[in-house]
Amino acid sequence: MEPLASKLRPRTLDEVLGQTHLIGEGKLLTSMVKSGTLMNMIFYGPPGIGKTTVARLLADLTDRKFISLNASTDSLKDVKNALDELNMFMGVHGLVLYIDELHLMNRRNQQVLLDYMESGRVVLVGSTTENPHFAVFKALVSRAIVVEFKPLESADILKGLHRAMDFYREEAGLDEVKISQTSLNFITSLANGDLRKALNNLELVLLSKAKTNARVVEVEEEDVERILQKKIINFDLDGDAHYDLLSAFQKSIRGSDENAALLYLAMLLKGGDLISVNRRLLVIAAEDIGLANPQAISIVKACTDAALVLGLPEARIPLAQAVILLATSPKSNSVITAVDAAMHAVDTTPVLELPLHLRDGHYAGAKALVRMQAYVYPHGHKNNYVKQVYMPKGLEKMKFYRSGSNKYEEATRLYWKKIKDEETSGES
């Protein structure tokens, strides 16, 4: 039986959920289809968000034959056979060769593709869940456009689930399919941006409740728990309960209570909410820890990247590492305070005129302009510092950044105080 996710594959770009940065009037993929010209591309993003579907659509909508290979299972012989039979399979305007899991293709196989890419006989569309700049042969990356696909938002997943329920109802000849919004939210949260996973889970639940000659399929929350073997936490994806939990999570880390933070992390993960947790941890690293532990954001980024690669349940381990690191780190909000003060100054100052000596002096004719003043190059001076005006007129005495009372920021403050005091005393 064909899976529901396969039956619901979009037939036009407009039916593709999410990826609004790529699809729509004037956007990259829509423009390619309108012009009928496809470039070699590498689709980069997590699984289940439409990379294969979009590649197939691009071929169909530009009258090209579509051939799909998988780098994890197809051999060099399979690649060569597909390419050597181009004339037999060529569509009206050529051929799209789609290679899934491109990062798993060895370098020799990737090398084979180069000649065909350069000849123009084939449009290569590779797909990878790994960063192609690190995981794919550099010569291949340099001949292709890297197109990043983003995880689907909860609203996109929910839209896909409602579309699937309508399709299932019509296909099965039912009068109604009943399932609570809480259950749909839960299925959405378990998917972590993977529409295919959400549709598979929905189909599993619906099939478990299907009865011969029944005109209505009614799914209870306990049915979802039983079939998916997960306990539903009242998880309102777009409501107060969800944001209350995220708020408690951040405030516990900010308050240096690692135990409370771990509890709220567990609650979020039990609800399947991996994406919101990742985003919030990165915000916390910059907003609440900031320069008190400058390395924290790099470590947290590594932890959240690892969580996305691992998926649940293993994702809980690097995320817990990030939570404990942040909760036990010294705290400083000097970064967010400084940038917000600068944003306020921009909003409330009518005219911000750049100092003349800071303006670009490299373009042709700049030196001939009388208004250009001498810029003093700091690296030609002691400690790579020289006193000069950098602020626009009227804001010379404005200070946005005020260092926090922690080891790193205090050391930095004293370092610059010493240098600037020496510069000032040298002038007198």
TrEMBL record:
CDD domains with a match to the protein in the record: AAA, HLD_clamp_RarA
The entry's keywords: ATP-binding, Nucleotide-binding
Domain AAA+ ATPase: 37-152
Gene3D superfamilies: 1.10.8.60, 1.20.272.10, DNA polymerase III clamp loader subunits, C-terminal domain, P-loop containing nucleotide triphosphate hydrolases
GO BP of this protein: DNA synthesis involved in DNA repair; DNA-templated DNA replication
InterPro entries: AAA+_ATPase, AAA_assoc_2, AAA_ATPase_RarA/MGS1/WRNIP1, ATPase_AAA_core, DNA_pol3_clamp-load_cplx_C, MgsA_C, P-loop_NTPase
Database matches in PANTHER family: ATPASE WRNIP1, WERNER HELICASE-INTERACTING PROTEIN 1 FAMILY MEMBER
Family, similarity comment: Belongs to the AAA ATPase family. RarA/MGS1/WRNIP1 subfamily.
Protein name: Replication-associated recombination protein A
Protein species of origin: Proteiniclasticum sediminis
